[in-house]
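Bug report

Summary: structure tokens for Anthranilate phosphoribosyltransferase differ between web form and batch submission.
Environment: batch mode, default settings.
Steps: 1) Submit the sequence below via batch. 2) Compare with the web form result.

Sequence submitted:
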Amino acid sequence: MKNLPSATTHLNETEAHEVFGWILDGEIEDASIGSFLTEMSARSETSDEIAGAARALRERLIPIDAPDGTVDCCGTGGDGHHTLNVSTAVSLLVAACGVPVAKHGNRAASSKSGAADTLEALGLDMDAAGRTAEKTLNEIGICFLFAKNHHPAMGRIQPIRQKLGVRTIFNLMGPLSNPAGVKRQLIGIARPAYVPIYAAAKAKLGTERTFIASGDEGLDELSLAGGNELADVKGNDFEMRRVVAVQANLPHAPVEAIRGGDPAHNAKALEALLMGAPGPYRDAVLFNAAATLIVAGKTTDWTEGADMAGEAIDSGRAKQLMADWIELAQ
């Protein structure tokens, strides 16, 4: 067994790549991993550590082939707000707008209902969705890449994460390790001040275009409640900006307005959204969908992006896509 360095010591990218390789390969005792992760999180992970750890995870994943222009939209989780599943709904709307979406996700680690939990409650067979991921992505433009199917090295880490019940660097590594190798993403993180650090990690790894976003209240997605920190990452560089809902012609709403619950509760809300229900949940989804459509190159305008996503709901295309997905993933 290997010995972990002190969590108070900042690792460079090469060191982080090596250390997290040890962790993922089972060369570290489980008992020491939890404290290492929590102590690292407490002093804040560096961009070098995130990039190095993500490279280690990428080297051990099981990839899929994806169409050109495939995107992902996800949050790092661990924000403690327990909101409805925004990025899951965004994935359906964006795919209904003609952009292939490889939704990378998992069951809840520190929330009440992860993307997989909610989609399963809607009737999607998660095991079948995993087996048919390439098929559904190519035929209807959406798939769910269940982390457990594509990151076998995470099998021994997941129980540790669930026991900790708090965000760790593994929350940050996941969105950077999509098995479809997406080059365009919207990633929400739970710490506004951390956006430039995470953006620097993404820039080290390279991207065609990625938005890193965080609501001022620590929401791991674009928030309606107030302002948002946003990093626009292109290639190996990024620039920071502020984004608010009115830029997409959407009203402000408190985070409490999109508070979620267990998988059944969240699935019912998502089903109502696809049926055309108005309100803050729809607005939050449209805001984040607009960002994803901008990243995908479908538009350059926030309001146009929100309108495109809204039309995907109102036309019934997003609802039909969900039905087709359930039927095809057999």
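Above is the batch result. After comparison, the two runs are identical; trailing whitespace caused the diff. The two ends are 42 Å apart (CA to CA). The chain has one domain: 71-147+163-329.
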